[in-house]
Amino acid sequence: MLFGGRSGEHEVSRKSAASILANLGPAYRVTEVLIGRDGQWHVDGVPVRFADALDVLADQNVVFPALHGPYGEDGTVQAVLEWIGVPYVGNGVLASAAGMDKAVTKTLLAADGLRIAAGVTLRTGEHPTPADQERLGLPVFVKPARAGSSLGVSRVDAWWQLPEALSVARMFDSKVLIEPAVNGREVDVAVLEHPDGRVEAGPPLEITVTGAGFFDYDAKYGGGARFQIPADLPASTTEALQDRAIRAFHALGCRGLIRVDFFLPDGGEPVVNEVNTFPGFTSASQYPQIWERAGIGYAELLDILIAGAVKGRSGRSAVPGGVPR
C-alpha cells in the first residue's frame, strides 16, 4: 500500500489508504509504504532511504498507489513503478499525467468528440484579455490546472474578484484555468475495468451541495453534500452518461478505473467537467459508493482492481534484474 505524498491531498490519501486497508480480505499480506509531506519515505512506519523504499516496492506482488494529486496521481509514481517493473493498480503514466492536467484532459476529450466546458488556460504571468472576459461571461470558476479535491478553486461573480482568485489558484499550480459556470445538474459516473478486459460504467451519482456555493473541498470532506445513487434520470440520459464516461476512459488510455464528472444541462448533451484517474477511496467517497449501489461491495471492488493489475502485468515484460543501481 503506497500512500501519503507531497501534495495538498496528503490527508485525503491517508484516509483512502486506511479505508482500503480496512476492507482488504485476509488473503492479503500488506506492506505499508508512506511518503511524508516532506518527501521522506517510510516502510511500515520506519523512515528509509529512497533506494531502500524502491527495493521494498520491487519485491511486492502488486502495489496499490492510493495517492491523490501531484507527485502521486500525475504519473510521477507510476513512472517509478514502471521503471522497477512491479505491477500496480490503476492508470499508467500517460493517462495519469493527462488526467491530472485539466487543460490536457479537455483537449484529448474534445478531440474524441466529447463535449467540454469552454475556458481559458493561463500560464505564469498571463491574464485573460477583455475579449476572453466577454466570451466567458460571468460567473466563472478559476481553478489550478493540476490539483484535485477542488483545492484552490474560486467562484468569480464580478471581474474585480479575479486577481484574488488567480492568486489562490496559483498557490497550487502556475497553470490556471478559467471556465464559465455551466448551469446543470452535477453527476458523476464511475468506470471500472474488470480483469477480463470488460469496461463497465456504474449508476450515475448526483451531487447536491447543501452547505456551500459549489462542491468545494469543505463540501467534499466536511459533509456539505448529499449523494443520490442512482440519480433520478431517464434511462436514455443514464445510458448517454455511461457511454460518455466509457468514451472518456478510452480517450485518455485509462486502465483499471476512472471517475468522470459531468454537468447535465436541461435537455442537452452532457458536459465533461473533469476526470479523476484515482478518485477518493474512503468508504464515504463517490467511487466506492457507486459500485456498492451497483452490487459490487468495497472488498470485491478491491479484488477486481488488484486482479486486473496482476493480470495486466503478466502480459508485459518486467525490468530484468530489479531496481537499477
TrEMBL record:
Binding residues for ATP: 102, 141-143, 149-150, 179-186, 273-274
Binding-site residues, Mg(2+) 1: D261, E274
Enzyme Commission numbers on file: 6.3.2.4
UniProt keyword list: ATP-binding, Cell shape, Cell wall biogenesis/degradation, Cytoplasm, Ligase, Magnesium, Manganese, Metal-binding, Nucleotide-binding, Peptidoglycan synthesis
Record-annotated ATP-grasp domain positions: 106-307
Cofactor binding: number and manner: Binds 2 magnesium or manganese ions per subunit.
Pfam families with a match to the protein in the record: Dala_Dala_lig_C, Dala_Dala_lig_N
UniProt record, GO biological process: cell wall organization; peptidoglycan biosynthetic process; regulation of cell shape
Top-rank EC class of the record's enzyme: ligase
Annotated SUPFAM superfamilies: Glutathione synthetase ATP-binding domain-like (SSF56059), PreATP-grasp domain (SSF52440)
Keyword Cell wall biogenesis/degradation: yes
Catalytic activity, reaction form: 2 D-alanine + ATP = D-alanyl-D-alanine + ADP + phosphate + H(+)
Annotated TM spans: none
Pathway in which this enzyme or protein is active: Cell wall biogenesis; peptidoglycan biosynthesis
Compartments, record wording: Cytoplasm
Binding site for Mg(2+) 2: E274, N276
Active site (record annotation): E9, S149, S285
Top-rank lineage group of the source organism: Bacteria
GO molecular function, one term: metal ion binding
Gene3D superfamilies assigned: 3.40.50.20, ATP-grasp fold, A domain, ATP-grasp fold, B domain
Function: Cell wall formation.
Family to which the UniProt record says this protein belongs: Belongs to the D-alanine--D-alanine ligase family.
NCBIfam families per record: D_ala_D_alaTIGR, PRK01372.1, PRK01966.1-4
Protein's name according to its UniProt entry: D-alanine--D-alanine ligase
Gene name per UniProt: ddl
